Every structure is written in C-alpha cells, then in structure tokens.
Amino acid sequence: MSGTTPKGPQVAVLPTAAENEAPSPVQVLQPPGWPMPKGYANGMAADGRIVVTGGVIGWDAEERLADGFVGQVGQTLRNIAAILAEAGARPEHLVRLTWYVVEMDEYMANLKELGKIYRTIFGAHYPAMALVQVVRLVEKAARVEIEATAVVPR
C-alpha cells in the first residue's frame, strides 16, 4: 500500500558491525529522537541460536568469590564470557544482560571502574540491560549476579 503512513512509533535500527565487516545479525534498536543511552542499548534485535545463562556470580572454578563488588563484577563478566564461548558465542552476540545487585549505591559509586572492566572483557558492545537491587542473593557473600542472553548467527 503506497502512500500510507505507518501507525505507532518509528524505530531506527542501528547495525553493530563496522562498515568493513560483514553485517551483524545483532542490531541495536534506537527510536528516532531518543537520547543515545550510555553503556547499554534500549533494545536489540537478532536472528540465530539463542544462548542463555543462569544467574552468574563472581566466583572462580573452586567457588571462591572475588574480593569486593568490583572484583566480583569482573569475575562474573569473565564467567559469562566463558559460558558464551562454550556455546560458540562471543560478547558481540549479547543481546541482554540483567544485573542483580545487593546495593545500588555500591554500583553507582563504581561506575567508572565498572565501565573499564566491562570494556576490557566485552569491548564496546552494549546490549539491552536492566539493573535491579535485591535484598540478597542465594550466595550470601555475593554482591552481584548477572543473567545473559546472546544470539549466535546461524
């Protein structure tokens, strides 16, 4: 139907691959006129095999938690990267991260350091994210737990 105006909000789809790379099956969704988010995406679209993690915390293979909030976040992200790799996924395949923190102020006080750790492990790929403060986690000494969803191209 030519000449009709679509109903509903318009959505821009931004490719995540650089111009000299093959097009990414993961796309960032950014509605026109919305401010660009910093450190996350408003939405993602992808086509491929879905890989999900459970709630991942910042402990090592011997179930020893890293020291402090920042240390636990770093180990949690490394653990997620290892789980993704097991499925043939890479950080750029991430479409969603849901963070559960015991103390929101602890997260906010460490944003700069968390950003550096995140970029070291996952690069500059920022999927859709949510941050939720919880009363506690199953492991009492854990300060953060993160669930991840990735989509691996077919």
Structural summary, described in words:
There is one protein chain. The chain has helices spanning 68-86, 104-109, 111-122, and strands at 12-15, 26-30, 43-46, 49-52, 56-57, 94-101, 128-133, 144-152. It has three helices and eight strands; from the N terminus they run βββββαβααββ. Helix content is 24%, strand content 27%. The longest helix has 19 residues, at 68-86. Residues 1-19 have low confidence and may be disordered. It is an alpha+beta fold and 154 residues long. The strands form two sheets. Strands 4, 5, 6, 7 and 8 form a five-stranded mixed sheet that branches. It has a three-stranded antiparallel sheet with strand order 1-2-3, with no helix packed on it.
The description of the largest β-sheet is: 5 strands, mixed
As a percent range, the share of helical residues equals: 10-25%
How confident overall, as mean pLDDT? 87
Number of strands: 8
Instruction: List low-confidence stretches.
Output: 1-19
**How many DSSP helices?**
3
Structural class: alpha+beta
Write down the overall geometry: globular
The N- and C-terminal alpha carbons lie at a distance of 32 Å
| Strand content bin | 25-35%
Radius of gyration over all CA atoms, rounded: 17 Å
- The secondary-structure element order is EEEEEHEHHEE
